[in-house]
Here is the input.
Amino acid sequence: MGAGPAGSSAALAAAREGARVLVVDRKKEVGTPVQCAEFIPLQVLQRYSRAAGIVCQGVSEMRTHLPNGEVISTRLRGAVCSRARFDKYMAGLAASAGAEIICGASAYRFRDGAVSVNLNGRVWKIRPLVIVGADGPTSIVRRWMGLGGPDCVRGRQYLLALARRLGTMEIFFNNEIPGGYGWVFPKGEVANVGIGVERSYGKSSLSVLYNFVKELHHKNIVKNARPLAVTGGLISVGGPAEIRRKNMVLAGDAAGHCHPVSGAGIANAIFAGELAGETAARAAARGNMSILAEYEEACRLFLDPGLKRAAGKRRSLSPLWGKGPQQLSAALKKNWIAFEDYYQD
Here is the structure.
């Protein structure tokens, strides 16, 4: 389920293993609407950057603006990209390997081993041997597995014209964006400008974004507050979840593979998707669902330690929102990925 990076990676890997693969995505077109700040790290681009038009602007530095006025620069190599084109490219690779991809379809029920799918009012049932849930933070496969939804922050983003070109990604922390941060990710003459807000603080994400954009305009970073495009969505920040039950596994945001502090998730989604697809294909071929435990174990070994650490950092930071700028800044130096103290217990 899902044709994002995790789902397409799983489909590609499973198809290459010889499995018959069907991808069901509720979006009418792969990759749109975009619900992402669109930064893709270098290690992903080195493997999947052949399609023209994916990269909008290469970046090698992130600047973190702390509440006390400090600005810290950190090396971070990658690019701000077109996620729509990247997702289409990944889905195209899966289709070329033999996967069938159906867009605009809703898988809405799982009963007696059959999945009910609605496409333009027509309902049909399929009986998959293995189900890979790569359908995001509101995953229906999670519900079929009997799991609750993940902890999420609400993300809102505008595409805005820049007052001047930027060569770095800009991250802003302050008490007006509780439980998250603001970002400016440049794409040439424009930038993705957004915020993530933890919903428990009761602040409207739209009003927080409005005030953040107004501040950026005052600082002559953005040309004006008129968005060229608007997007938003939930960002899973709860950390790794249970990812296997019977013949179902989860990958990507559905599995809590998004980084709980930074919100980054593309690299982990692709890694988990590939593992899920390979393991699902072997389990289906042998008719042995216990093989899916190998996927669970690989995630526990390679992804869970970092994600659980980040979830702990997030919990440590949570009670400090609303404190003074010096206290919050000191806490961020221990709990934000740009600082060495983050990696020390």
